[in-house]
What does this fold into?
Amino acid sequence: MLKTLRRAAAGLLLAAASTLAQAQNAPLMRFVLPSVTPGSEVQATYFQLLLRLALEKTEGPFSIEFYPYELTSPRRALELQRNGVINIMWDGTNAQRERDLLPIRVSLVRDLNDYRVFMIRKGDEARFRAVRSLDELRQFTAGGGFNWPSVDVLRHNGLRVETSVNYSSLFPMLKAKRFDFMPRGVHEAWAEETMYAKDGLMVEPTIFLHYRVPFYFFVSKDNKAMARRVEKGLKLAQADGSFDKLLNGYPAFQRALAEIAARRRKVFELALPSAIAGGSSK
It folds into this structure.
């Protein structure tokens, strides 16, 4: 019996040594993320830390860096598709994105991306407080990024949308009355309010839009090994609780969860285009 145990232990040591040697000899997996949005703690740190958490739970060396220059949303998707200056990004999903890129189907912010509040001009607060239905909201014009998945959803539900290829241009457009409100993820809006309060913008306090658009990491369709590694690490982090521990440690996510739990807002449910409704997240 003792000899059997010793043989089994020796076998395990050999297997472990072999696995370690393979990991040490594996090529470096290099991840290049897009530059981050100024002023947002979530954008600046959460997604790279979540990626690092996932990679540390898998085997093989890796590096993570940010591309130093700002890219428009369409340019990010194009660079990723052709394995250009970035090779991984985070974003909401839609049919076009999934045709062009490879989604890693683990929702990065749970269901927080499904709840949208509005950035508005402070002078319009009373107008939005008076809105009682989606039909009444259709009298207003929304703003959004040129290829944001949320724009597809808004238009599918009969809402008018003005777009820009540059995220940073949307706030002066709102101030200049090019549109009336900009739907933002409930975890995003208050950091933006802090940045743009000086321009007379605020988070509207009475309405939620609710629609399901999962938020994923995306890579090029040529990077299947990269996708498998990230997905494996994210699922391991979900299983051991470290995923939720990281997310729950962010004040932006804490505030978002509290805002949803408070049930103080009117909730307008939006139907999804069939291409998005068919997606899934874990």
The first strand starts at residue 29 and ends at 33. The longest helix spans residues 2-25.
